[in-house]
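In this section we walk through a basic example: taking a raw amino acid sequence and producing a predicted 3D structure, encoded as discrete structure tokens. The instruction is simple. Fold the sequence below.
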Amino acid sequence: MAESTVCVYGTGSLTPEYVRNVLLIEALETAGFHVIYCSIPAWTGTRAKIVAARGGSLLAALRFAFIQIRLLCRYLLLTGRHDLVLVVAPGHLDIPIARLGTWLRGKPLVFDAFYSLYDTVVSDRGLCPDGSLRASIISFVDGLSCRLSDKVLIDTCSNRDFVSRRYRLRPDSFAVIPAGAPRGFDGEPAQADGVVAGQCTVLFHGSYVPLQGALVVAQAAEILARDHPDIRFRMVGDGQTRQDVASLAEEKGLTSLAFVDWLPLEGLAEEVRKADICLGIFGTSGKASRVIPHKVYAAMAMGKPIITADTPAARELLEDGKTALLCRPGDPGDLSASILRLSANPSLRTALGRSARSLFVERAATGVVARRLAGLVCSLMARSGRRPMSGVPRRDGLEA
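The resulting token sequence is shown next.
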């Protein structure tokens, strides 16, 4: 029987740094699908997406429109035989043209929304005011991209419920696929050895968008600085709120807090390996309550103890005191108390790390994601009258 083929489509980056897209492709290949590409990356990083969300320029809009025309022509004229199209993130603006192409070729369309565009741009990052014309356009695009797709992938049940309620979509239009861990993290658990002997190293890494709660981490570091100089913080990354955090650190003289610029995934994996405690997110926005970021899964994959905000999304996966410590969102006092508890209790750190690693293997490893995607793809192919390839598992009871 011919091998089933998935066409990965869109303007999203396929480089290792864009973890979500790489993970989905790896999972498809693990499940036995052949993957082909119809892709023209248009986003060079977070800064480019922020500029676009704030309005961008006419030249940038024309360039993006030209990319969409090139993508459609490439898909219709140059893309070979395939059974299904997957639009990768951030693909909300790619969906209308992708839908036109798949209608013309009679193929099912799956969209990895991953997150709500409106929730990200307007509610969390505040890049344009709620109620403005731009916010209304973003909301329209957000809902339209989901309606035009045969199936929408999203990262948590909380996000699924939010998007389905906001845009009056059926919950079964969505498939919940966890964010997962980057390649290089999904392996044997790492031994926590600390950066410096006699110190407890606490690692925060992220893009400094508001949902990360980086300022809350710095405020927790301030609380601990005077009486617990052995607790050291490493802040890896850059982004929207980093200057606010750096200003606080300078104003308070926080020598316990070290800043590290963006690292390649190999360097980030080494930071996680050396850390004694890994931090998740601590923001108070609605989006912060609905996501479980890659860094939480990465810490789980490497058997690290995790502290993150107690949110509905976190509760979908984690259990306080068993697989992580959960603290109140936006509360540096509660975060500092959790850090102090773990820093003083190496056996608890070890137990949490082992439990987190076991949970990751059970719920979010590449093989688990592969089985979910295989069930979803086979279901859509069967619905469209195509038989899945031999060797690809049919639905096995996992949620699609």
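Looking at the output, two observations stand out. Residues 390-400 have pLDDT under 50 and may be disordered. The longest strand covers residues 200-206. In the next section we compare this with other chains.
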